[in-house]
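ok so for the tutorial part 2 we go from a plain amino acid sequence to predicted structure tokens. step 1 is just haveing the sequence, like this:
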Amino acid sequence: MDGAHVADGGPAYAHPNAKELESMALMKTWLARDGLMVPRTMRHEECGGEDRALLKFIRARKTADKSYEMLKNTLAWRKENKVDSCLQEPICPAHLKHVEKIPAYYAGFGKTGHPVYVEHTAVIPWDIILENMTTDEFLKSQVQTLEYQASVVYPEASRRAGEPITQVINVWDLKGLTMGGFTSDVRALVKKASALAQDNYPEGLYAAYIVNAPKIFSFVWAVVKQFLDAKTVAKVHIYGSGDKMWKKLMDRLGPGVTLRREMLCCKKAEIGKAEAEYGLQPAHGATQQWIKANLTGVDSGMGSTPGTLRRESSVHDVYDIFFDAQCELPPPDLDASTSIKSGLASEQPKASEASESPDVVDSRKSKKCCC
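step 2 — the prediction. this is what the tokens look like for a chain of 371 residues:
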């Protein structure tokens, strides 16, 4: 295969242009000069080898010198934190029992060939995690999952696609999100996790789709996007809920995903039940299981995803709002910290307040539902 499966007929990741090729050559020269090298864990041949690894840093920082500085910082971080060997040491059982319950799953592959990662963000048990794990302990498990993605998920995606795949499609389900769960401690952890990923795993996001965004999301998005670079923000698309959300999401992802409608259109208490029924294993738990199996020399029997499931048509038209992240949400009053919970919870961003976009649907024409 040569990447013809990609919707626009082009490669899953654009080929380097002349300037980028020149920067790649410079970086290779500087690596040799400084006695450094890109570790094997960053240059899987199926995923484009060293050239792809360097290209991602170049596209993150644009110029050769800034890209090389970013790469050197990453190499130093990997050495200091023993990242290249982190998949040889599972986390302790006391931490595993919390991490393995994080409701996030690999759910097949999009029509562009990229793996799809679905996270039910609002029901992650942050309070329990923060009570039982330090920030560094949690970040270690996150790094292991990112390394599993690079070492297992991307190579499988690349083999399936017939071309290097080094990015993921994220689907973030915000059903049940409340200000009470978005505490200062949680925000601090999210900020550190986002910085770690952006600084050391550049160009890792192909696209992100936020679904079931609640009324308070205008505040949350205003906070979270401060931790993201502009290029990442432009890849984020925010959808409402119900039939139109599901149809549009499936149009973007294609039939090669293991998502089912009931995984995203369900009551908060039922989140995760459909995934379990269809054999999807939480990604953080799958990572730890793979580490243990790999250490014992036993085939885990795990690919990065279960098999493809058929799509079901949606059955009920519900409260649908569509807009891209480029269409700014109405900014909340960040100074009114004492009234965040009461004030922002009553503010609903209206489609008319966003700039003109074909994805905007007037919420007044829709009905509200549990999905």
